[in-house]
C-alpha cells in the first residue's frame, strides 16, 4: 500500500459513485456474440484463406493505420470494389463476409446467415440514401456525401460484426464523459455545445478514432443507426442529411476541440489503467474497487505490466512504421534519385545512395532506443486519481480544472516576432544540413532525398514516442528541450507535410487496389467455388 495512503488515517472501504456502479453493471449484463449453428455458419477454404491473408498483410503494410482502424478500412475497400461491379449491392453482403473470412479478420464459422441478413439490410439502405442524395449534385458535394455515407455504412457494419467490443468501447467512453464533463467550462458556449465538442475530444484521444469513426459516433449520438431507421424514415431524413453531415464535420474541426483534446489527454492515464483492470478481472471488480488496499495492489501490478509492455509496443510500431516508409516513400525516392542524378549531373553518388538507405533506420533506432518508462511515483498518482474517479465523493467531478477560451493574441507584435523566429529555425536547420551534406559530396537531388527521409522518419518516430507518454500524468521537460526543439521542429513539420500530402500520391495503393486486388479476389472466388464443388462430390460418394 502506498505511503501516502495510510490505512490508519483513512477508511479502507471505497464507496463507488453511481457512474462507476453503472459501468460495472454494464459488464455484468454485456451479451457475447452467439456463434451461428453449423448449417447457417459461413466457412471458407483454408487454402484460399492462406493466400488471401498474405495478400491482406502486404496490402495493409503500404497504408499505415492503427490496428483498430484496419478492419473498417478493409470493409470499405471491399465494398467500393464490389459496388463498382454491382452498384445496386444485391447479394454483396455474403461476398463481403466471405472476403473478411478469407483474410481472417474473423475465424471460420463465426459469421453466419443472420449476419448476412443484417449487413445486406445496411447495404440496401446505403444504396437507397446514395441515390437520394448524390444524384444531380456537383462533383465536390457528391464526393463529400458519398464518402460520409460510406463512413456511416462501414462503421456500422464493423460494429454489427463485433457487437461486444463496440458496446464495451461505447460504455468506457461514456464513463469518461460522465466523470469529466462537469469539470469543464467553456465561456460563451451552451452545455449541449460543450458536451458535443467534448465527445469529439474523447473519441479522438481515447478512441483514437479517424474521420470515419468520428462521423459515425456523432451521427448515432444525435440520430439512430441506419439499421434502426425504416426506409420511410430514411426518405424523410434524406433531404436533411447534407446539412446534418456538414454540421457534424464542422463540429469535428471546431477550434474548441483542440483545447478539449489537450485536457482529455492529461486526464486519460488513470482511466486507461482502470479500464485495463476492469477488463482483466471482470468477476472481481466489486471487491477490488471497494477495497483501498486491494485496489492499490492491483493498480500497482497493472501499471508495472503496462510499463513493461511499452517497450514491446514501441518496437512493433517502429517496425511497422519503417516498413510503411520503406514501401511507400523510400523505394520510390531512391528509384528517382538514380535517373535524376544521371540526367542532371551525369553521375551517381554511390555514397549518397548508401547513406540515404541506411541512415533512416539508424535514426529511428536512435530516437526510439532511449525512453524512460514511468516510475512508482507516477503509479501512486494514478492510484489516487483512480480513487477520485470511482469514489462517491463528487468534489473531483465538479471542481473545474480547465477553462478554455478562444485564443486571441494579446501582443500581436510579439506573436509576429515569434513567427519570424520560428521561420528562422527552418532556415538554420536546413542550412546546416546543406553544408554538412555538401562536404560529403551530396548533389542537390541527394540532399533533397536525405531531408525527405530524415523528416518522415523523425515524424513517425515522434508519433511513436508519444505512446510512451500516454500513461504519464505529468511530463517533466528536459533542460535541453528548447535547444533540441529548435533544430528538430523543422524536421517534424516537414515530415508531417510529406506524410499527409504525399500519402495521397501513394502509387502502391493504386497498384494494389486497381490492378492487383480485383483479379486476385476473382481467382480466390473461382478456387473457392472449385474446392466447394469437389467437397460436395466427395460427400455424394460417401
Could you please describe the fold and organization of this structure?
- The model is unreliable at 3-9 (pLDDT under 50).
- Helix 4 (92-102) crosses helix 5, helix 5 (113-134) packs parallel to helix 10 and helix 14 packs across helix 16.
- The N and C termini lie far apart (67 Å).
- The radius of gyration is 27 Å and the shape is globular.
- The chain is built from 21 helices and no strands.
- The chain is 73% helix and 0% strand.
- The chain has helices at residues 18-29, 46-61, 67-85, 92-102, 113-134, 139-161, 163-180, 191-205, 211-222, 231-238, 241-252, 255-280, 285-289, 292-345, 350-368, 376-390, 395-398, 412-439, 444-465, 481-501, 507-541.
- With 542 residues, it is mainly alpha-helical.
Amino acid at each position: 500500500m502506498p505511503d501516502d495512503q495510510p490505512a490508519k488515517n483513512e477508511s479502507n472501504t471505497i464507496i463507488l459513485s453511481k457512474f462507476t456502479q453503472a459501468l460495472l453493471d454494464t459488464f455484468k449484463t454485456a451479451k457475447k456474440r452467439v456463434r451461428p449453428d453449423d448449417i447457417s455458419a459461413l466457412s471458407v477454404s483454408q487454402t484460399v484463406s492462406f493466400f488471401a491473408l498474405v495478400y491482406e498483410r502486404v496490402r495493409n503494410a503500404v497504408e499505415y493505420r492503427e490496428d483498430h482502424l484496419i478492419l473498417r478500412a478493409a470493409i470499405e475497400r471491399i465494398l467500393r470494389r464490389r459496388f463498382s461491379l454491382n452498384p445496386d449491392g444485391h447479394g454483396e453482403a455474403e461476398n463481403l463476409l466471405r472476403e473478411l473470412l478469407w483474410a481472417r479478420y474473423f475465424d471460420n464459422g463465426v459469421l453466419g446467415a443472420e449476419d448476412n441478413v443484417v449487413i445486406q439490410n445496411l447495404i440496401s439502405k446505403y444504396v437507397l440514401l446514395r441515390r437520394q442524395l448524390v444524384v444531380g449534385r456537383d462533383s465536390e458535394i457528391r464526393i463529400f456525401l458519398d464518402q460520409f455515407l460510406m463512413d456511416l455504412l462501414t462503421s456500422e457494419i464493423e460494429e454489427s460484426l463485433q457487437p461486444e467490443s463496440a458496446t464495451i468501447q461505447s460504455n468506457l467512453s461514456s464513463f469518461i464523459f460522465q466523470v469529466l464533463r462537469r469539470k469543464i467550462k467553456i465561456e460563451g458556449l451552451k452545455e449541449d455545445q460543450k458536451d458535443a465538442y467534448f465527445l469529439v475530444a474523447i473519441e479522438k484521444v481515447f478512441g483514437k478514432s479517424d474521420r470515419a469513426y468520428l462521423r459515425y459516433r456523432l451521427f448515432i449520438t444525435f440520430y439512430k443507426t441506419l439499421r434502426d431507421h425504416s426506409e420511410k424514415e430514411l426518405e424523410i431524413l434524406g433531404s436533411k442529411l447534407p446539412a446534418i453531415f456538414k454540421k457534424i464535420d464542422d463540429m469535428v474541426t471546431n477550434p474548441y476541440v483542440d483545447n478539449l483534446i489537450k485536457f482529455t489527454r492529461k486526464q486519460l492515464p488513470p482511466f486507461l489503467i482502470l479500464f485495463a483492470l476492469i477488463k482483466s478481472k471482470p468477476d472481481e471488480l466489486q471487491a477490488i474497487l471497494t477495497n483501498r488496499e486491494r485496489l492499490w495492489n492491483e493498480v500497482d501490478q497493472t501499471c508495472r505490466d503496462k510499463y513493461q509492455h511499452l517497450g514491446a509496443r514501441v518496437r512493433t510500431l517502429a517496425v511497422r512504421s519503417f516498413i510503411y516508409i520503406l514501401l511507400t516513400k523510400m523505394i520510390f525516392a531512391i528509384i528517382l534519385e538514380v535517373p535524376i542524378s544521371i540526367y542532371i549531373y551525369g553521375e551517381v553518388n554511390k555514397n549518397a545512395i548508401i547513406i540515404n538507405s541506411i541512415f533512416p533506420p539508424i535514426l529511428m533506432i536512435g530516437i526510439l532506443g532511449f525512453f524512460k518508462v514511468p516510475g512508482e511515483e507516477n503509479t501512486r498518482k494514478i492510484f489516487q486519481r483512480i480513487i477520485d474517479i470511482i469514489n462517491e465523493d463528487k468534489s473531483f467531478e465538479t471542481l473545474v480544472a480547465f477553462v478554455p477560451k478562444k485564443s486571441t493574441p494579446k501582443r500581436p507584435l510579439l506573436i509576429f516576432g515569434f513567427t519570424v523566429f520560428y521561420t528562422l529555425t527552418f532556415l538554420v536547420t536546413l542550412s546546416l544540413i546543406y553544408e554538412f551534406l555538401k562536404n560529403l559530396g551530396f548533389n542537390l537531388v541527394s540532399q533533397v532525398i536525405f531531408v525527405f527521409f530524415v523528416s518522415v522518419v523523425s515524424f513517425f518516430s515522434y508519433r511513436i514516442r508519444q505512446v510512451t507518454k500516454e500513461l504519464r500524468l505529468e511530463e517533466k521537460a528536459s533542460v535541453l528541450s528548447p535547444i533540441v526543439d529548435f533544430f528538430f521542429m523543422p524536421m517534424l513539420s516537414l515530415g508531417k507535410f510529406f506524410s499527409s500530402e504525399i500519402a495521397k500520391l501513394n502509387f502502391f495503393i493504386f497498384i494494389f487496389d486497381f490492378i492487383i486486388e480485383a483479379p486476385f479476389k476473382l481467382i480466390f472466388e473461382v478456387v473457392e467455388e472449385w474446392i466447394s464443388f469437389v467437397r460436395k462430390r466427395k460427400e455424394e460418394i460417401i
